[in-house]
């Protein structure tokens, strides 16, 4: 693509290195430069309007123009623009938020540690698990099991937990001590004639075998997203989590629920853990926590995790971990207001209701020749695009069809995201029934244009 000299696109190409972008081809594909947002829509610098069907990055729960969040940030900025949580310091906003999170947690939680991104929250979880094992006199109990296709972030530790090849290749990851077990992607990974139930049983048994092979007393924790997001919106079989938790209990292995995408209503309940009967020892939260208006994340831990950590910090003299902006008052104020709005407007029930409409509408596309499977729950969904539905086979190379349909959708006023050939939809929780219908019509039209 060629752009006017000094245009925003030309300057973006000149100066800006983008994550999750082919750095060599950025000029060819060209940047989509967004100017402003209105509800579930964003508008680019040329005036083109898009349904933001990914809520940015699975995250803008309240849409792109929620004035109350702006007011909450401004009010906090004027009152106390920064304070921190080191060396026994605190402030009212972070105390309120910590209390609120513990109150709404789906299982009893003891404490909240604040961080700035999902990656940092998961990184912190891993460090505190190691710290706890040392505190308990179990220095060999350090390994963490995550899953292929899982996504937990991009720091050295959290990228290691991530189970996607692009996050490891050429980065010399994963680090030692992180193990990956199979993903609950039934459509892609079940054996011929294997039911969903049998598939879940096999995954739990493979997990058990991995633990046995490594030595149960070397495994400290298991981490998983209730529904995998970036791995292609992988909705687990109904009994999967129940079976996995039975294995973890058997070997006294901690469970971390990565609720960075699922938290705050995405799956039609406040937390994905509620949707799937997960009882985590630790939970990581971010994204919809502040509707992504400002960066904030959190790690919640139960008493079983907290008490040994408290003992160890007492022995050493301090808990040697913390981020300058962890517990920053301004994103904390936005987070408190986000949760208040979600509760006041009944947006969790709303997500379940309009989510059902989205899921039903997308499943009507199952007969389309380019559709292999539609999956999802609440307001998170994916269409698995295929060249040959009968054979569940992709166009060569994998991702070509996904990129094609994603491009057509953009032309038709929808921002979606393709992970290979899985085309994801994860709109803001405030989407209305009429907007869901508008989105569905544009998806159907785009699929037809791709044939
Ligand atoms: N965990 C999950 C489930 C995510 O989807 C993400 C980001 O997409 C992360 C962790 C990492 O969050 P961040 O990008 O804020 O570091």
From TrEMBL:
Entry keyword Transcription regulation:
no
What are the top taxonomic ranks of the organism?
Answer: Bacteria, Pseudomonadati, Pseudomonadota, Alphaproteobacteria, Rhodospirillales
- MF (Gene Ontology): adenosylmethionine-8-amino-7-oxononanoate transaminase activity; pyridoxal phosphate binding
Query: What GO terms describe the biological role, i.e. biological process, of this protein?
Result: biotin biosynthetic process; gamma-aminobutyric acid metabolic process
Pfam families xrefs: Aminotran_3
Q: Which InterPro entries match?
A: Aminotrans_3, Aminotrans_3_PPA_site, PyrdxlP-dep_Trfase, PyrdxlP-dep_Trfase_major, PyrdxlP-dep_Trfase_small
Q: Spell out the family assignment given in the record's similarity comment.
A: Belongs to the class-III pyridoxal-phosphate-dependent aminotransferase family.
The record, for NCBIfam families, names: PRK06105.1 (NF004767), PRK07480.1 (NF005682)
Give the protein's cofactors. pyridoxal 5'-phosphate
What is the name attached to this protein's record?
A: Aspartate aminotransferase family protein
Which PANTHER family did the record assign? ADENOSYLMETHIONINE-8-AMINO-7-OXONONANOATE AMINOTRANSFERASE (PTHR42684:SF3)
Q: Which UniProt keywords apply?
A: Aminotransferase, Pyridoxal phosphate, Transferase
Q: Does the keyword Transferase apply?
A: yes
Q: Which superkingdom, per the lineage?
A: Bacteria
């Amino acid at each position: 693509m060629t752009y006017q000299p000094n245009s925003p696109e030309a300057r973006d190409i000149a100066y800006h290195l983008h994550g999750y972008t082919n750095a060599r081809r950025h000029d060819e594909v060209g940047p989509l430069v967004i100017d402003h947002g209105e509800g579930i829509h964003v508008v680019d610098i040329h005036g083109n309007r898009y349904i933001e069907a990914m809520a940015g990055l699975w995250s803008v729960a309240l849409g792109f123009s929620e004035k109350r969040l702006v007011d909450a940030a401004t009010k906090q900025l004027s009152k106390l623009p920064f304070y921190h949580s080191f060396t026994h310091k605190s402030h009212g906003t972070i105390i309120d938020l910590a209390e609120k999170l513990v109150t709404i947690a789906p299982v009893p939680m003891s404490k909240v540690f604040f961080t700035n991104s999902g990656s940092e929250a998961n990184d912190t979880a891993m460090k505190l698990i190691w710290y706890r094992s040392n505190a308990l006199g179990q220095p060999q109990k350090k390994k963490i099991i995550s899953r292929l296709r899982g996504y937990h972030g991009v720091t050295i530790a959290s990228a290691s937990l991530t189970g996607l090849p692009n996050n490891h290749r050429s980065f010399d990851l994963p680090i030692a001590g992180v193990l990956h077990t199979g993903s609950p992607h039934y459509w892609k990974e079940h054996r011929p004639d294997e039911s969903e139930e049998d598939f879940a049983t096999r995954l739990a048994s493979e997990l058990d075998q991995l633990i046995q092979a490594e030595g149960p007393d070397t495994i400290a924790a298991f981490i998983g997203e209730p529904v995998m997001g970036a791995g292609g919106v992988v909705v687990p079989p109904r009994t999967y989590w129940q079976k996995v938790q039975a294995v973890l209990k058997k070997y006294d292995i901690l469970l971390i629920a990565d609720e960075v995408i699922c938290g705050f209503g995405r799956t039609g309940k406040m937390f994905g853990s509620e949707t799937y009967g997960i009882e985590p020892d630790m939970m990581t939260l971010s994204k919809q926590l502040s509707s992504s208006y400002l960066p904030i994340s959190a790690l919640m831990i139960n008493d079983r995790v907290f008490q040994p950590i408290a003992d160890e910090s007492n022995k050493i003299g301090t808990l040697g971990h913390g981020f300058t902006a962890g517990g920053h008052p301004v994103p904390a104020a936005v987070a408190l207001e986000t949760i208040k709005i979600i509760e006041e407007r009944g947006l969790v029930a709303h997500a379940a209701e309009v989510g059902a409409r989205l899921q039903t509408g997308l499943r009507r596309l199952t007969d389309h020749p380019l559709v292999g499977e539609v999956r999802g729950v609440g307001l998170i969904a994916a269409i698995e695009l295929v060249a040959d539905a009968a054979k569940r086979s992709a166009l060569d190379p994998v991702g070509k069809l996904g990129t094609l349909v994603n491009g057509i959708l953009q032309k038709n006023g929808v921002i979606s995201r393709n992970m290979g050939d899985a085309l994801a939809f994860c709109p803001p929780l405030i989407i209305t029934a009429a907007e869901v219908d508008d989105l569905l019509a544009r998806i159907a039209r785009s699929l037809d244009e791709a044939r």
